[in-house]
Amino acid sequence: MRALTEDETKQLFDKLAKYIGPNTKHLVDRKDHEWVFRLHKNRIWYMRKELAKLASCVAKRNLMGIGILIAKVTHNEHMRIQVTALEQIAQYAMFKIWVKPNQEQSFLYGNHITRAGLGRITENTPQYQGVAVFNMADIPIGFGVAAQGTLQCRKCEMNTTVLFHEADVGEYLRDEARMT
């Protein structure tokens, strides 16, 4: 487990800024404890600094994971934000989309959201902006990219895609089913 390099940190914050914008500073500057990002086995973890110090005593091959999994580094050195980062994204997201109950299950199966399933959208959401996805009970269920801006959503047809799916809480179940 090691600290992120400057390039890795920049790349991670650029990815996170797609969803939470300038609120990325809140991930590092927290009042409760000092939090850090660490790289372990091509995964970026977010944890309290005290926990990182304790984990340094564990052998690398014995350490499975620690803290909150934020991103995975691919073999091409790209970062992919994981669904386990949903709590942080939902908490600090600048733009949000709420999904109607009839399309919630479809989204949890990995499908895009159409205009017919759109409950609400944050005002002034730009096109291709990263957004947090909530159900109508304000429970975060995933995140994605807005295929249409707020104004375009009001004018488009009901079968037009308004959100491109990126990750959802149903991934755990789909991955488990694939593994067995």
Outline: elongated
Total of helices: 7
Kindly report the average pLDDT value: 90
How much of the residues is beta strand, in percent? 25-35%
CATH class of the largest domain: Alpha Beta
Whole-number radius of gyration?
Answer: 18 Å
Q: State the low-pLDDT regions, or none.
A: none
Main sheet characteristics:
6 strands, mixed
Could you name the CATH topology of the largest domain? Nuclear Transport Factor 2, Chain: A
How many β-strand runs? 11
Q: What is the chain-wise order of helices and strands?
A: EHHEEHEEHEHEEEEHEH
Q: Do you know the CATH architecture of the largest domain?
A: Roll
Structural domains: how many: 2
End-to-end CA span: 30 Å
Helix amount, in percent?
Answer: 25-40%
Domain PUA: 95-170
GO cellular component, one term: nucleolus
Subcellular location: Nucleus, Nucleolus
Function: Required for proper 27S pre-rRNA processing and 60S ribosome subunit assembly.
